[in-house]
């Protein structure tokens, strides 16, 4: 319905597009979180940063003795890309994903185009063009590949920006005025206490599979799915 409105409507196009993006993204996000809930074998997922998305890829690991692509469930986090092996879970009659390896975003470069296949891209460790340290990934579609390459580059750019700000000398940073400093100092004790609580809250939400927010997202996805099924 929203897709048809977006196609033919000339008024409030941006508003309709935003609504359409929300309807599409909610079930996709719920699906990603359900896959994350089946992930195991890594001690502290919170240390990997915020969970972004997941997908099934055919992966060529440069460390493998046999140069053959293997199906892997790939999880993208704020700080790294995680590769997991899909296994049957007899206890739930479902599947689980067992941790195999990871690539830190701060240590890789993205090769958007791999010769011979428009749905493949590569993650290369180090700055030198060395195929021995290159992990190739074949996405389910070219559109999926483009989406992943774009998102990984956005995350890498964010890490670079944060690193530059952290390295910036204190003397080169703009100084606040005396009046601003005086007024802000009155709030220091209250802000520090609030900040401590906020940090704890953010850290406690790192475990996406069990957080209340995920249940809310999944619940929304179910409602949207039922609504679209009746249309």
Automatic annotation (TrEMBL):
Biased composition (Basic and acidic residues): 187-203
One of the record's GO cellular component terms: cytoplasm
UniProtKB keywords: Guanine-nucleotide releasing factor
Domain PH: 51-157
A GO molecular-function descriptor: guanyl-nucleotide exchange factor activity
PANTHER family named among the record's database cross-references: RHO GUANINE EXCHANGE FACTOR-RELATED, TRIO, ISOFORM A
The protein, known as: PH domain-containing protein
Phylogenetic lineage: Eukaryota, Metazoa, Ecdysozoa, Nematoda, Chromadorea
């Amino acid at each position: 319905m929203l897709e048809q409105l977006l196609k033919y409507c000339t008024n409030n196009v941006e508003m309709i597009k935003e609504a359409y993006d929300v309807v599409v993204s909610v079930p996709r996000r719920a699906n990603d979180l359900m896959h994350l809930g089946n992930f195991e074998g890594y001690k502290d997922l919170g240390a990997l940063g915020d969970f972004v998305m997941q997908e099934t890829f055919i992966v060529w690991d440069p460390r493998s003795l046999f140069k053959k692509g293997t199906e892997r469930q790939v999880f993208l986090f704020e700080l790294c890309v995680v590769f997991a092996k899909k296994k049957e879970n007899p206890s739930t009659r479902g599947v689980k994903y067992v941790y195999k390896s990871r690539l830190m975003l701060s240590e890789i470069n993205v090769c958007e185009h791999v010769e011979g296949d428009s749905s493949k891209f590569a993650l290369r460790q180090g700055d030198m063009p060395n195929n021995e340290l290159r992990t190739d990934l074949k996405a389910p579609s070219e559109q999926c590949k483009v989406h992943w390459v774009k998102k990984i580059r956005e995350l890498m750019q964010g890490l670079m920006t944060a690193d530059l700000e952290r390295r910036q000398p204190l003397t080169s940073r703009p100084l606040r005025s005396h009046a601003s400093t005086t007024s802000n100092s009155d709030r220091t004790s209250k802000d520090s206490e609030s900040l401590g609580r906020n940090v704890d809250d953010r850290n406690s939400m790192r475990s996406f599979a069990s957080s209340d927010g995920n249940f809310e997202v999944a619940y929304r996805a179910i409602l949207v799915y039922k609504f679209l099924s009746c249309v």
